[in-house]
Design brief:
Layout (H helix, E strand, L loop, with lengths): L1 H14 L5 E7 L4 E3 L3 E10 L3 E12 L4 E12 L5 E9 L6 E11 L4 E13 L3 E6 L12 E6 L21
Parallel strand pairs: 2-8
Antiparallel strand pairs: 1-3, 3-6, 4-5, 4-7, 7-8, 9-10
């Protein structure tokens, strides 16, 4: 009899509807970033019950320092079955984040119980830039002026402007 009651109770609990939360995150499609680049994202929250809770966004970078940071927290008030939209602030990438990183959105209730988590971006942060240089001539005579022109691009081949470039020879810096 005790066994039958336990099985019946288990079956009843299995049939009870559980609250369901979903997070949908949209962001850009880049996988590589340079220092000072910004990552933005928008979050759609769906919950099948009324919810007073919190949305937080965090970043974790696996480099020599194992960098972890919650960079955004906001209270959310979600009506049952009505999407709530949150624009996450831009995250500026810093030297502490060099290496492989991932970002995550977490939805909690007011008691900080996690209702849903969504990893929304895996990417690499680098300090490398590419430089393309052209010379004004193919051959030069001693003492002749050399004119260099060039372009600096980020890891996604976007042009970089307002950078100072220094060229060093054996004797001088230009």
């Amino acid at each position: 009899i005790i066994m039958k009651k336990g099985v019946i109770l288990f079956l009843v609990l299995m049939l009870l509807p559980l609250a369901s939360a979903e997070l949908f995150v949209t962001t850009d499609s880049y996988h590589n970033y340079n220092l000072k680049n910004k990552i933005s994202a928008d979050v759609e929250i769906n919950y099948d019950e009324d919810l007073d809770g919190f949305l937080r966004a965090s970043i974790n970078c696996n480099n020599n320092n194992s960098y972890n940071m919650i960079y955004f927290v906001t209270p959310v008030n979600v009506e049952a079955n009505t999407p709530e939209y949150v624009n996450l602030p831009d995250l500026t990438l810093t030297r502490n984040m060099l290496g492989n990183c991932r970002t995550k959105a977490t939805l909690t209730d007011s008691n900080n119980i996690i209702l849903e988590e969504r990893e929304f971006k895996n990417f690499t942060v680098t300090d490398e830039l590419s430089l393309t240089i052209s010379l004004n001539e193919k051959n030069y005579n001693p003492g002749e002026e050399i004119i260099l022109t060039g372009y600096v691009n980020d890891v996604n081949q976007n042009p970089i402007t307002n950078y100072e470039l220094t060229i060093q020879t054996d004797e001088k810096e230009y």
